[in-house]
Amino acid sequence: MIRLLRKHARDFLALAFVALIGLGVGGYILSNQRFYLPDWVPVVGSDFVDVDAKLANAQAVVPGQGQTVNIAGVKVGEIGKVTLADGQATVQMKIRRKYLPLYNDASILLRPKTGLKDMYLELDPGNARAGTLPEGRAVPLARTLPDVNPDEFLAALDADTQAYLRVLLNSGAEALDGDSPAQLRQTFKRFEPTTRDIRRITSQVAQRRQNVRRVIHNFQELVTALGERDQQLSRFVDSSNANFQAFAAQEQNLRQALTLLPGTLAQTRDTLTDVDALASQLGPALGKLRPGARALAPSLRQTRPFLRATTPVIRDEIRPFARDTRPATRDLRAAAEDLAVVTPSLARTFKVLNTAVNLLAYNPRGSEEGYLFWLAWGNHNRSLIYGNQDAHGPVRRGQVFVACAVQPVLDTLLINNEALGVLIELLNRPKPAQVCPGQVGFGPGAAKAEKEPEPKAGGAKAEPKPEQAPGQVQDEAAAGTQGTAGTVVAP
């Protein structure tokens, strides 16, 4: 046998591979044909739990046709069988164990998938607060709803509603004839804002489903309580009738009051708006003042003796003085009104003055100094500048620097212009020969003064200077070209 397998190994492997493919295809087909292995089969076994449901009408429910049981649109099982007991249909549901448990408030809706009545059961497992549904107990008839056929819906309408429905269908057929669908489509487009707002409303209502349910329940209890007190309601209606008759007798006065009501409401609205702004600020402020108010109590108790001691002074001395000063206060009102006119200008003046004083007093950081520092140095320098005086008053001191090249110009102005010559004489400048020895020809007689040396004392003529070294002459000439200085004293 082994030798045959070795000889036909390739054929054997091919047959095994085909068989394996056949098993896979068969398993896939069986899985889609709702073929489930028992739960004791490992890995591929399925564990179902049978749950019965009572339905008033189980039409089009056929076992073995793949009709499913869904929770929130997800398949959780299949319909097993349908039986009849006590005039009620009992539908067996095979639900996978992993989707259990079901609760006592579980509900079931029988709905068609298509118009051909391909039915399925929509299951709501309920809420854990209602308790777990015991095994073997069926979902009661009160928690199930069958499918409603169109003829049942139309039969429930009265004759007038059926007639209106026929008119609606006929008018709709006329509206959809010819070019009317385009016009109808435009009409529906105009309803888009309305549908958008309705969708917002319904979404909010859906979010508040519990609140709406509670309101309906409370309203039902209110109506029930009112129904038990019909005598009291009748007396209330009679008293209301009497009140309305009294209102009718005062119709004219009520009309006048209603005429004045809009202005009053407008003023009230403005007042409430202002009060709302005040309240929004006043609440936090008062909350923050509470610790201070609690701490103020001991201080107030300690000031009681002081207040008792000062009460006679205020009553017997300050109050009569205030009464006596009333005429003077009235006279001061006119002066205060005049002062109020100039107060804004005065305030602006002091504001500018304050800015200037701050600017002068500011001392920046670092090595720089403020204006007050340099003001003290300016005062010190002023004392030095005006330290001399004569019969005409203080005399300013200063220096004027003139280059050697400018000396000929000043000499020319001294000769040709009398007015400028006076100013040039007041400069008290030194002679050009003293400050610029290397240059000649400054002013009249300068050349002669250079050629003839001044005589010495006793009538003897001064001997000419010996020649200087070239370096010395050059240094003096360079010094002469830099300029001359003259002291100026001006009153």
Question: Which short descriptors sum up this protein?
Answer:
491 residues, disordered C terminus, 58% helix, alpha+beta, 14% strand, 16 helices
Topology of helices and strands:
Blueprint: H1 2-7, H2 9-32, E1 48-55, E2 68-71, E3 74-85, E4 88-96, E5 107-112, E6 119-124, E7 144-145, H3 150-155, H4 159-175, H5 180-190, H6 192-207, H7 209-227, H8 230-249, H9 251-324, H10 326-361, H11 371-385, E8 388-390, E9 393-402, H12 407-416, H13 418-426, H14 432-435, H15 446-451, H16 470-482, E10 484-490
Parallel strand pairs: 2-6, 5-7
Antiparallel strand pairs: 1-4, 2-3, 3-4, 5-6, 8-9, 9-10
Helix pairs in contact: 12-13
Explain this structure to me?
- The protein is an alpha+beta fold.
- Among the domains are: 1-33; 45-153; 156-225, no CATH class; 386-450 and 475-490, no CATH class.
- The chain has helices spanning 2-7, 9-32, 150-155, 159-175, 180-190, 192-207, 209-227, 230-249, 251-324, 326-361, 371-385, 407-416, 418-426, 432-435, 446-451, 470-482, and strands spanning 48-55, 68-71, 74-85, 88-96, 107-112, 119-124, 144-145, 388-390, 393-402, 484-490.
- A hairpin with a 2-residue loop joins β2 (68-71) and β3 (74-85).
- The protein is elongated.
